[in-house]
Design a protein that fits this description.
Helices cover 25% and strands 34% of the residues. By secondary structure, the protein is α+β, with helices and mostly antiparallel strands. The N and C termini lie far apart (105 Å).
């Protein structure tokens, strides 16, 4: 036998095709971490449950992965021989056994539900669990969320919020970084928005005057009366027409809930160009009748 064939035999002999086939049998390549599988629990013990997921080896579900809530009796959440869904959280070990979780699957479903709620601009109730300098931590469907101080209605005495339920909207949801940032202010704005509609006459207080328009507070929600929407007549200075703290009535001409914008108009209440400038009190006193007339005119 020459040296080349000796080398070839040495290279091939330690690992035969039979060995290769046996090694393959140990691993079930249809199962991978992150995959959702169906299976049936066939055995419970103190440490967890053994699950048949149709693989060459049974899968194992550790006790602390059985549910998001604390469990004393595993059979309550893992009934025997009942088909359920599981999430694979660890790849196969040397024996070809994968590790499963119901808890992580529940968490995944909650993230999906929250993302859907954010997309639909829905609000949700949360419970305040803790307080820090920047805001409060909350329990939201068993996940941990955070409300920054600037997005709370009560910003001074945060300790008083502990244990309270708050209605919040969503600022940021990121499952990959476990970020769940919420806003109480957003929820207030959202509920106020649901009471508003185009063409509606609203009453508010002037909170600020800028060269381009007047800021108006409508029950805690900001609105803008643009200079071009004040009167049909040209205005050179809004400070000659309005004062901060003044009550005014105006018609909603634009709503953008996503950006939190409400646009107002007093121009549509005028009987003639410049009436708001010449006789503001009269326009405000009969604003309801004028708004009705304006909406009827728009519908024609």
């Amino acid at each position: 036998m020459n040296s080349e064939s000796k080398l070839s035999q040495t290279a091939n002999s330690p690992f035969t095709m039979d060995d290769f086939a046996k090694a393959l049998e140990k691993h079930d390549y249809q199962f991978q971490k992150g995959q959702i599988v169906h299976g049936k629990v066939f055995q419970l013990d103190h440490d967890g449950a053994y699950v048949d997921i149709g693989g060459k080896s049974s899968a194992f579900l550790p006790r602390d992965e059985a549910s998001l809530r604390a469990v004393t009796d595993l059979s309550e959440v893992l009934p025997l021989q009942e088909e359920m869904q599981f999430l694979i959280i660890r790849d196969q070990d040397a024996e070809g056994q994968v590790t499963l979780s119901r808890k992580q699957l529940e968490i995944q479903h909650i993230w999906e539900r929250l993302a859907e709620m954010q997309e639909n601009a829905q609000t949700v109730q949360v419970r305040v669990m803790g307080v820090n300098k920047g805001g409060v931590t909350v329990d939201i469907l068993s996940l941990r969320g955070f409300i920054p101080r600037s997005h709370l209605a009560e910003r001074d005495n945060l300790e008083a919020l502990k244990g309270q339920n708050l209605t919040v909207g969503f600022l940021e949801i990121n499952k990959n970084t476990n970020k769940l940032i919420l806003s109480q202010r957003l929820a207030t704005r959202s509920s106020n928005f649901s009471l508003l509609e185009l063409g509606q006459l609203v009453e508010g207080k002037v909170t600020g005057i800028k060269p381009f328009g007047v800021f108006v507070d409508l029950n805690g929600m900001g609105a803008l009366l643009h200079i071009k929407q004040v009167s049909q007549k040209f205005i050179d200075s809004l400070e000659k027409v309005f004062q901060v703290g003044q009550s005014i009535k105006a018609v909603i001409i634009d709503l953008d809930e996503g950006k939190g914008r409400v646009a107002l108009s007093t121009r549509v209440l005028e009987n003639f160009p410049g009436e708001v400038l010449e006789n503001m009190d009269e326009v405000m006193a009969s604003a309801e009748a004028r708004a009705n007339r304006a909406s009827n005119k728009a519908a024609e």
